[in-house]
Amino acid sequence: VACPTLYAYLRKSSPDVPARLLEYDERFGQYGDDFAFYDYNQPEALPPAMKHAFSIVVADPPYLSQECLEKVAKTVSFLARPEGSFLLLLTGEVQKDRALELLNVRPCGFKPQHSNKLGNVFRLFTNYDPVDRLGGWDRSDGATI
Predict the structure, then answer these.
(1) Most CB within 10 Å of its CB: which of 45, 56, 57, 135?
(2) Where in the cell is the protein located (predicted)?
(3) What is the CATH number of the domain that holds 26?
(4) Each residue's pLDDT tens digit in the chain (145 positions)?
(5) What is the pTM for the complete model shown?
(6) Distance spanning both ends of the chain, measured CA to CA
């Protein structure tokens, strides 16, 4: 969800891995059937075949607002399988508590860097402990996980 750079990387490095790109920018329509138009203001306005169809969902909300994260969380719930999916959320650290509340995701030790030098600390959150990958869950704040 809104991760065109990740999608392009996956297509190049692992072309056999099935992936879909949900993105507002219709220039990504160049990816054909792998592209679906996505507007976070309409979190479930997606093709019906996508409902509960994904075992892995990666989301990078376009804004750091509470409203945006809440709507993207609705999209993630729409896409994820009811029996469980791996969720990866890329967003600002300021969203830590809200992300836990909405998606039950926790920050990982891995801290993504943006080439645009964003003013906010960016974090990767997951709903599973990646253990030795991605730095595992970040336990530096003493939280019990």
Answers:
(1) 57
(2) Cytoplasm
(3) 3.40.50.150
(4) 999 999 999 999 999 999 999 999 999 999 999 999 999 999 999 999 999 999 999 999 999 999 999 999 999 999 999 999 999 999 999 999 999 999 999 999 877 776 666 567 889 999 998 887 776 787 775 554 4
(5) 0.87
(6) 26
